[in-house]
């Protein structure tokens, strides 16, 4: 078989980097081989950690949960595009329009910003990371893509989150002053709405959004691939850890079984 399979997922574990909010994932060993003859761990934590997929319910009340995404929307052909960004970079409609390979209607889109190389417990990845804005998310909705994965900290720019004066924030008020010093204006001028990237993509567009894509992302950048990302079959879930795969067939001779 000529298939090549790439893992676009960060390694999951107790001490992985985590978005600065709730307490981290806690993993305890309940049983181990030397004492019990089996190995068993207990996992406790929220789903919005590591490489994970959000549901509309995460950001807007009375909207679909993670199980409401139809299976056809979680796998299919698409592109991995390079849109490199630096500190506080914004993924714009112009970036998406110019991306190669060209983003087409019905595509799954993986966006390589370069920030997956900074994946660590640090401000460089989270507080000073990049992200899409509401207009960029609207572009994806208008072009009718079916799933988006971001190689950065979230489905939104950090200045559109509670890190600054949005929602439950500011949890990192120093970022407000740093933005003012850098750009000469309040961040709410540039990011007036709370997580409109999330809301435009998932609530308005019904498009799944995956945060913290990484792993072998560089190896498929610039390619058209077959992607798969499956969350749990979990009624009421506001999000879910996922393993994201990209598959290519260099020889072009693979075929799915007919089912007969």
UniProtKB/TrEMBL annotation:
GO molecular function: arylformamidase activity
InterPro entries in the cross-refs: KFase/CYL, KFase_sf
Gene Ontology BP terms: L-tryptophan catabolic process to kynurenine
UniProt-listed Pfam families: Cyclase (PF04199)
Highest rank taxon of the organism: Bacteria
Name under which the protein is recorded: Arylformamidase
Organism: Flavonifractor plautii
């Amino acid at each position: 078989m000529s298939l090549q399979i790439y893992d676009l997922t960060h390694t999951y574990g107790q001490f992985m980097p985590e978005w600065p909010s709730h307490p981290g994932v806690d993993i305890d060993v309940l049983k181990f081989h030397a004492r019990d003859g089996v190995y068993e761990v207990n996992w406790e934590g929220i789903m919005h950690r590591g490489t994970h997929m959000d549901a509309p319910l995460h950001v807007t009340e009375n909207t679909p949960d993670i199980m409401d995404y139809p299976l056809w929307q979680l796998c299919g052909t698409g592109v991995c595009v390079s849109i490199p960004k630096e500190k506080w970079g914004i993924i714009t409609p112009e970036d998406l329009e110019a991306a190669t390979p060209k983003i087409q209607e019905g595509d799954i889109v993986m966006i390589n910003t370069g920030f997956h190389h900074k994946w660590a417990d640090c401000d460089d990845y989270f507080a000073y990371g990049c992200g899409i804005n509401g207009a960029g998310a609207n572009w994806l909705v208008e072009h009718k893509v079916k799933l988006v994965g971001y190689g950065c900290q979230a489905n939104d720019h950090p200045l559109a989150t509670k890190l600054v004066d949005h929602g439950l924030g500011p949890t990192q008020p120093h970022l407000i002053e740093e933005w003012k010093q850098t750009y000469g204006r309040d961040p709410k001028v540039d990011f007036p709405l709370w997580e409109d990237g999330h809301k435009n993509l998932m609530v308005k567009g019904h498009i799944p959004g995956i945060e913290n894509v990484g792993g072998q992302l560089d190896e498929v950048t610039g390619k058209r691939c077959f992607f798969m990302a499956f969350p749990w079959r979990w009624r009421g879930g506001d999000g879910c850890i996922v393993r994201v795969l990209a598959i290519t067939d260099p020889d072009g001779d693979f075929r799915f079984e007919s089912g007969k």
